Amino acid sequence: MGDQFPTVRIAAAQASPVFLDRERSTEKAVSLIAEAARQGAQLVAFSEAWLPGYPWWIYMGSPIYSAPFTQQLYANAVRLPSPTLTKLCDAARDNHIYVVMGLTELAGGSLYLGQITISPAGVMIGHRRKLKPTHAERTIWGEGDGSDLFTMETKIGVLGSLNCWEHLQPLTRYAMNYFNEQIHVSAWPSFCLYTGTLHSFSAEANLAVSRSYALETQTFVIHVGGLCDQATFDLLADDEEKARLLRVGGGASEIIDPMGQTIAGPMGDNEEGILIADCDMAKIAGAKMANDPAGHYARGDVTQLLLNRRPRRPVIYADAATPELLPDEPPHSGAIADVDAVKGYEK
To answer: In what residue span(s) does the CN hydrolase domain sit (predicted)?
Structure first.
């Protein structure tokens, strides 16, 4: 199909972090980024809250049990900008690859569930937060706002990302469809919690969510999950009851095309590595011809989406001459730019 419909190689990094250790996890991420690039990937995606690990303890015990782990998460969360971001940007630049990283962000005194996108030039071009942390996650992470819904124009296509059960929000899906997304990162934690107890927490149920997202939005979807390794299990499961709630493994990463077909994976339940798929972008046009819910298949005269993309600020200055943000406070979210040569979060 020529340059109009190129083939793009994308990757999912299914791996466990070095749990609650930001520095060692960052070094592991750098190695995984390099490995994806060695396999020819132009983009590599990491799972939800990968850096420095998903807080499984919030579903496993009392606040007293949870407090020491939450304090470690706070101490190992990622500020933006920071030396951690610099290392990730350097890895993207050195390997000439786009990177989408899930992380716990520390901003001010609060934690947020973030996703950042870094260009092959080594610059962060996107930064978002989960709009509404799910269930017990709200004991850890604050909320995002409307500015956290966006896509990014890049050399490999229009990129977007969401976390976990954000994919169950119909209006959020519709907004992303309207932004004409082409490659989507669907980031999840490991499917290692409440196994056999809650089907809604299972790999089967949530793979179905990512597959339906691909069909509904006509995108290539990188469904990327993490792993719970033995060291994490041993740390958290300190009695028989907790050991029944969590298990080792939980991986099920796969890559899905705009027709809802799996084109790579799923990876094994406890398999660590890089999953690769070559994406024929002409498939998007074929899917759009039949079904474009926010375009020719829409009925705006019957149903419409009201979308407020303004940042929600806790403080707004009454003096119009005073900047809304403090001089050293960056905007917390949004597509920093829509091209590779960006300004904003310079290293």
So the answer is: 8-281
Domain map (residue ranges) of the chain: 2-335
List 27, 35, 48, 166, catalytic entry: 48
Residues 13-48: b if buried by 16+ CB within 10 A, e if exposed? bbbbbbbbbbeebbebbbebbebbbeeebbbbbbbb
DSSP code at position 327: T
Cβ neighbours for 311, distance < 8 A, ≥ 6 positions apart: 145, 146, 147, 331, 332, 333, 334
Q: Is 240 a catalytic residue?
A: no
Q: Which two tokens stand for residue 265?
A: 């994976």
Integer distance in angstroms from the first to the last C-alpha of the chain? 38
> pLDDT tens-digit profile of 199-231?
999 999 999 999 999 999 999 999 999 999 999
pTM, two decimal places:
0.92
Per-residue pLDDT at 1: 42
* In CATH, 2-335 is 3.60.110.10: yes
